[in-house]
Amino acid sequence: MKPPMPYCASRFQTVRRPTREVKVGPVGVGGIQPIRVQSMTTSDTQDVAATVRQSIALAEVGCEIVRITAPNVAAARCLRDIRRDFTTAGFGHVPLVADIHFLPAAAMEAVEHVEKVRINPGNYADKKKFAVREYSDSDYEVELQRLHDAFSPLVKRCRELGRALRVGTNHGSLSDRIMNRYGDTPLGMVESALEFLRIAEAHSFQDIILSMKSSNPKVMIQAYRLLVQRMAEEDMHYPLHLGVTEAGDGEDGRIKSAIGIGSLLLDGLGDTIRVSLTEDSVYEIPVARAIADKAMSRWRGQGDSATPPDAIDPFSFGRRTSLPVDLSPRCRVGGDQPPRVIVRVASASELPAAAAALASSRLVDTPAEGLLVPVATPGDLAELCATAARTVLPAEFLVLEIAPALTPDILQPMLALTRGKIVLLRRFTGAEAGTLADFASLATRHGHYLACETEAADIPRFVPVITGPDGTRLWFTLGTSAVDGDLAHPAGRYRRLAEALRAADCHAPVWIRNTAGTAVHHDPTFLSRLLEASFLTGTLLCDGVGDLVSVETEVDPVRATRLAYNVLQGAGARISKTEFVACPSCGRTLFDLQTTTQRIRAQTGHLKGVKIAIMGCIVNGPGEMADADFGYVGGAPGKINLYVGKTCVQYNIPQAEADARLIALIREHGKWADPAPLAP
Question: CA 393, 397, 400, 406: dihedral to nearest 10 degrees?
Fold first, then answer.
């Protein structure tokens, strides 16, 4: 069987994918250009003054490309005045993009006025939605010819005027034709884009940018990887626009965006990005800028020719196999268990305060399952043992970060007196295979475990211990600082570690540690810590790697715990709260998304494991709600449609009644629980 064509130069370091450069007005995208940051206005496009004000506000905070929806010909015609007034205000250098869904006529009007037109291949010239029918090969060819006839005039006009096109595929709006041949899959998304791409190439038009957006980061990642592979097979080198659509708001929206976008940028894919938040769109820009800057700080001109093999299938999700470990009756690590959360405490003396903070009832669904405490001297160890004996710990196990000076002989007496499971964490170099054997034996004798902080290159030297009788007591994690001269990004180093363990036939749990040393681009802000955790932990979890996680860059134990769980939820690895899918708003939106999302969140945010979609219009609504339990969708001005999955069950409800009707629907399907009373 022919192996799949690689989708990137290296999964271990960032080697930028070479693409053609596409000019969007004066702004170059792809080629040698930096990652471009863009966003979208949310005003009614026919309100020219409001749309210009929003465009100016975006440009002033660093938005390099501004997108404006044109849902009909009248709105598209307004783009002429918007372009004129925006230029008069001093922003002629910032290109405008018309966002088109259903109407070719709107696209043909918009192309006269703006620098780029974005079309959604699932909606363009396609009025059918979710019709179940079979397409014979001849039926399919008829549909393709219909698309060719509908799309060709726009392509020809773009070529005549020097405009760019974005073929922007959304997971939530695949056509019936695609859905019934390829299903609701990343492959379907790719084929949908390629159909339109081939039409453009038939007219010798190549000023095209492509996107593969989804509200699910895993789906989005897989779709982009597959698209690049398929384009490489056809010798296509178009730039990519990256984004997680309907990401939501707040910390959750930033995390989901950073997981999806960051994972691909680390692999060298992506030329322009948008962070889609259910907030004022100006707040998207600093997040997108920070993501872009982190990625560009890792760019390499060429890959390391000595990169190791990689057994991960990049086009499908499969979790790495690990052996389960019982740390308590309530806590098993590895196997089919969700990743466990470890929280770092600065010292033994701070353990009581950290324990008190982590014992809060607010963290009942997000517990710190392990506590990591540094131990540098025998005195530190004695203090830790004494403190732990008189402190009620809200965790299932302790991790002792052992300094090199602490030998097994020094640790032996204390471990003999310790109750409960202990994990010893120590750095081991390749020259310390004997020392590793001694520590592994120590852990085994006392029924504890040993977490080996090491690098992939050292694993072959540890094989005798790994395959020996004490090998089942081992965990593995990376060192807290990068190896001198190593070009690998942190996720790449963990990928190498996982590959080295696979080659050694080792199924020990892997612990993903977010530290200052594993940062892509260190920055002291909380946003930077959030993005770093999403880049590293989220990327690896989407690869299927990771049995434990810790965010050690956050010193506050409660914030560290919450951030870890939010990243786990963003990657779909562990659900600890209600999941909200919410679109970022645009000129098509039929209600105030920001206030509505906050209102529904306040009423339903306690429903752990329930997924609720809040969508401003029908464009992506049913599709992006494919894996949601319930949907709240704008159907008409002042009217809401309620969904169970993809099925609309209540039409045109007055918005004033919609919240109560949604809650009643959740009750009807057995998903409702009354919120716990607030603690006094």
Answer: 110
- DSSP notation for 409-436: HHHHHHHHH--S-EEEEEE--GGGHHHH
Q: What is the pLDDT of residue 1?
A: 33
What pLDDT, on a 0 to 100 scale, did the predictor assign at position 594?
A: 87
| CA distances to 261, 341, 352, 370, 394 from 358, in Å | 32, 12, 10, 11, 6
Extents of the domains making up the chain: 38-296, 331-509, 579-668
CB 375 within 8 A of CB 404: no
Amino acid 611: pLDDT: 92
CA distance 560 to 678: 23
Position 3 confidence tier, pLDDT thresholds 50, 70, 90: very low
pLDDT tens-place string over residues 225-262? 999 999 999 999 999 999 998 888 899 999 999 999 99
Average pLDDT over residues 402-424: 86
Superfamily covering domain 579-668:
Sulfite Reductase Hemoprotein, domain 1 (3.30.413.10)
- pLDDT value at residue 249: 87
Cβ 161 vs Cβ 111: under 8 Å: yes
Q: Do domains 331-509 and 579-668 have the same CATH topology?
A: no
Amino acid at 523: D
**Local structure of 43: helix, strand or coil:** coil
Residues 21, 26, 32: CA angle, nearest 5 degrees? 30
β-bridge mates for residue 100, sequence order: 119
Neighbouring C-beta atoms of residue 272, cutoff 10 Å: 27
Q: How far apart are CA 538 and CA 262, in angstroms?
A: 9
Contact between 191 and 198 (Cβ < 8 Å): no
The backbone torsions φ and ψ at residue 454, rounded to the nearest 5 degrees and listed phi first, read: -155, -170
- 331-509: which CATH topology? TIM Barrel (3.20.20)
pLDDT-based confidence at 391, cuts 50/70/90? Answer: confident
Give the Cα separation of 551 and 168 in Å (integer). 35
How far apart CA 145 and CA 324 sit, in angstroms, is 54
Element (H, E) at 653: strand 647-654
Give tens-digit pLDDT for 617-674: 766 656 666 678 998 988 888 899 999 987 889 999 999 999 999 999 999 999 999 9
**Cβ pair 424, 409 in contact under 8 A:** no
Alpha-carbon separation of residue 634 from 183, 588, 611, 653 (angstroms): 25, 10, 18, 10
Which positions ≥6 away from 137 have C-beta within 8 Å?
Answer: none
38-296 placed in CATH 3.20.20.20: yes
